[in-house]
Amino acid sequence: MLSAADIESIERATLQAVAPEVVEPMDGWLLAMDHGTVGRARSAVPLHHGTHDTERLPAILARYAALGFEPRFRLPDLPSFQPWHEALRLRGWQRDQPTLTMTGEVHRLMDLHPGPPGELDARPDAGWMAMFLGEGLDPADGASRSRSLSRATDTLYASVREHGQTVACGAASFSHGWLGVHGMRTAAARRGEGLAGRVLHAMALEALRRGLAGVFLQVDASNLPAQALYHRAGLTLAWPYAYWRPPLVD
Q1: How far apart are CA 177 and CA 143, in angstroms?
Q2: Which helix or strand (DSSP H or E) is residue 120 part of?
Q3: Which one of 20, 88, 103, 133 has the fewest CB atoms closer than 10 angstroms to its CB?
Q4: What DSSP string runs through 140-208?
Q5: Which residues on adjacent β-strands are paired with residue 170?
Q6: Do the Cβ atoms of 97 and 243 come closer than 8 Å?
Q7: Secondary structure (3-state) at 102
Q8: What DSSP designation does 21 have?
Q9: For residue range 11-36, what is the model confidence (pLDDT) as tens digits?
Q10: Domain covering 103-239: architecture
């Protein structure tokens, strides 16, 4: 079971890794605001999973409007947030993109691949950035995601390169006591070869060097292959969440 302090530290580490243009605190919430496509970087998120008064909702919406950002919420799918879900539905908001927050022990990541780990760099190179623009990916979304991750602090950029070409990558954040795993990508033609395990191995080695024991990540609830990989590394569900977006305006 995660403590309230664990939940808060994970949420703070998440926003540090995706680097929104604006982050403001408000009574147990962090209001992340961004003009990009990364949901975590543009959503209000609670810092604990206890009761939050829905009377806070208008103030949060007003703050987004005052700064010129479209409001979004990233809310746990937990009973304590049912009043928020209902309040947003009454306003015509829609639930979208169910996602899982998973946690585990850093040392277990090294069990995924016995071979050489990937490489870690202080800055993302062109090959790393190009992984977000590959086959089957939305170019605008990919560009936004790579920009968001590349401007983060306390983050290193993992790559597996073969013959001068990047075939797998990810971003590793080291903050608030956690290794955070973000932006995992593998070239479409190379999936199933254990390359993601090499990326995670590199991240784990650096996290252990820094004295970090816990790892967290967020994975789309529909991405079963990725979940299977993370389960093999001992990661388990910490909490599910979904995004809430306002009704579309014609």
Answers
A1: 29
A2: strand 119-121
A3: 133
A4: HHHHHHHHHHHT-SSEEEEEEEETTEEEEEEEEEEETTEEEEEEEEE-GGGTTSSHHHHHHHHHHHHHH
A5: 158
A6: yes
A7: strand
A8: S
A9: 999 999 999 999 999 999 999 999 99
A10: 3-Layer(aba) Sandwich (3.40)
Rounded CA separation 169/100 (Å): 21
Q: Which helix (H) or strand (E) holds 209?
A: helix 195-209
Where does residue 158 rank: exposed (0-12), middle (13-18), buried (19+ CB within 10 A)? buried
> For residues 8 and 221, what is the distance between their CA atoms, to the nearest angstrom?
22
Element (H, E) at 30: strand 29-33
- Residues (pLDDT < 70) of the chain are 135-137, 249-250
Burial class from Cβ neighbours inside 10 Å (0-12, 13-18, 19+) for residue 186 reads buried
Outline where 19-113 has alpha helix (H): 57-67, 82-90
Helix-strand-coil percent breakdown of the chain, rounded to 5? 40, 30, 30
CB 12 within 8 A of CB 41: no
- Domain residue ranges in the chain: 4-99+240-245, 103-239
- Is residue 176 within 8 Å of residue 207, measured between CB atoms? no
**Residue tagged 């290193």 (tokens):** 156
